[in-house]
Amino acid sequence: QGRCYLVATPIGNLEDITYRAIRILQEVDIVACEDTRNTVKLLNHYDIKAKLMSFHQHNEQMRSDYFCELIKEGKKIAIVSDAGMPGISDPGTTMVQKCIQNEIIVEVIPGPSAAISALVISGLDTSDFYFAGFLSMNKKRRKEQFEGLRFLESTIILYEAPHKIRNTLLDIKENLGEKNIAIAREMTKIHEEIFRGSISRAIDHFQQKNPRGEFVIVIEGHKKTISEELEWENISIEEHLAYYL
Ligand code: SAM
Asked: What is the mean predicted confidence (pLDDT) over 175-185?
């Protein structure tokens, strides 16, 4: 019976792949990938000979329909992205939705994702987190996003491109105030670096205009002040003081 597999692939170190992922990539009829040059490196490393087809943000809709037809004919298709988990700031979601509509079986082959890796290594609270992906470059939309994040008590996870990291850090400071953050750079690769400290220190640290590599920014959630707590509980300062005095 045909089916679709969402296969997680390494975010840097090629060893970070599961036995099951390797078996599935060997067995499927088609490996749908973002950039064939990238996926070929992984497949060659494990001596996997697979038929590759491109599957990226510009052809995701059309290709998803096409793949669903193939799966209905009994084919098995694996979806991979350039790194990490497909569907997380990467193509994949449309395919899953179309599979559901078409009553096609979808299986996930779990593995690394930069967001979760950065969160756990950040040292910040992992019990409640919010993944915001890449912030919009549209000024108005970006402002709205920051407004949504401002009083969020969850730890926030952001993806960012290297040439935008400095600007984004400046924006975080301006919109969210001084906070503790962690910046996970080049995780699992030779130049892995985890910065932990205040936003101001991070701005100093990444002074270089074009810091190289890949980055995830993890930001401490908002800590409610006493007056916010009271407002939240709908208690006036007088009532609060009367209780404690
Ligand atoms: N689907 C991927 C996942 O599950 O992590 C994310 C794809 S998204 C297009 C790429 C972004 O992920 C990068 O811009 C960076 O923010 C983050 N990223 C990917 N690999 C990374 C790594 N090794 N170290 C730090 N960040 C990484």
From this structure: 97
Spacing, Cα 230 to ligand 1 middle (Å): 39
DSSP string for residues in 112-179: --HHHHHHHHH-S--SSEEEEEEPPSSHHHHHHHHHHHHT--SEEEEEE-GGGHHHHHHHHHHHH-S-
Beta carbon of 165 within 6 Å of any ligand 1 atom: no
3-class SS at 109? strand
CA–centroid distance, residue 161 to ligand 1 (Å): 9
**Centroid of ligand 1 to alpha carbon of 238 (angstroms):** 49
Q: What is the pLDDT of residues 75-103, one digit of tens each?
A: 999 999 999 999 999 999 999 999 999 99
Atom of ligand 1 nearest to the CA of 85: 4
**Residue 155's closest CA among 189, 188, 190, 116?**
116
Match 């209905």 to its residue by tokens.
72
Q: What is the pLDDT of residues 120-155, one digit of tens each?
A: 999 999 999 999 999 999 999 999 999 999 999 999
**SS3 string of 38-92?**
HHHHHHHHCCCCCCEEECCCCCHHHHHHHHHHHHHCCCEEEECCCCECCCCCCCC
